[in-house]
Amino acid sequence: MSKKSVLLSAIAGKNRGTLANELDKINILEAITHLEDINPTDKPTQELELLDGNWRLLYTTSRELLGLNRFPVVQMGQIYQCIRTENTRVYNIAEITGVPFLEGLVCVAAHFTPTSERRVTVHFERSVLGLQRLMGYKSPHGIIQQVESGKKFPPLDFEISDREGWIDITYLDEDLRINRGNEGSVFVLVKEKGDG
User: Fold this and answer.
1) Domain, as residue range, for 182
2) For the chain, what is the domain count?
3) What is the SS3 assignment for the chain?
4) Is residue 32 part of a domain?
5) Is 144 among the domain residues?
6) pTM
7) pLDDT in single tens digits along all 196 residues of the chain
8) Which end of the chain lies in a sparser environment, N or C, as judged by fewer CB atoms within 10 Å?
9) Residue 109 lies in a domain
């Protein structure tokens, strides 16, 4: 079994990390480290074609993201990180499900700057929170088009200033990416086909 298959098998059924116990977490981090050791992309921040697209979160250790599942009535739906290398933009999109007809959406828009061969600094600019139905949400691509066109989504659409972070891209191939963030979190993402 390849190291990539070992990792994908280890995270299967763990609901992006919410269902991982301590032993699971140890095994998953070990599988991540083994895969990072054979990273096929030496300079990931320069591989724009590989980076560009919509990436769906498979696993994370981020308490902030995993905390979305702690509310009794709502659950975390799909979580995406959509990278647009042409204009150095990134969109973090989290779908929130649970209550019929009241499905929510959180979208955070940011600008990124490569600062080394594998690190990018992310400058957060705007946050939008609303109901999927009222926002006309059908896919990450559609909401990104609306945000880029300047559309406002009252009442929870606001500018973010003085907030930035960084991520190291520690593994990148044609359909899998691993990031390590400035707060110590790990992210494993798979590239979505189409709708990029």
Assistant:
1) 43-191
2) 1
3) CCHHHHHHHHHCCCCECCCCCHHHHHHHHHHHHHHHCCCCCCCHHHCHHHHCEEEEEEEECCHHHHHHHHCCCCEEEEEEEEEEHHHCEEEEEEEEECCCCCCEEEEEEEEEEECCCCEEEEEEEEEEEEEHHHHCCCCHHHHHHHHHCCCCCCCCEEECCCCEEEEEEEEECCCEEEEEECCCCEEEEEECCCCC
4) no
5) yes
6) 0.91
7) 899 999 999 999 999 998 999 999 999 999 999 999 999 999 999 999 999 999 999 999 998 777 665 566 667 889 999 999 999 999 999 998 877 778 889 999 999 999 999 999 999 999 999 999 989 899 999 999 999 999 998 778 989 888 899 999 999 999 999 999 998 999 999 999 865 4
8) N
9) yes
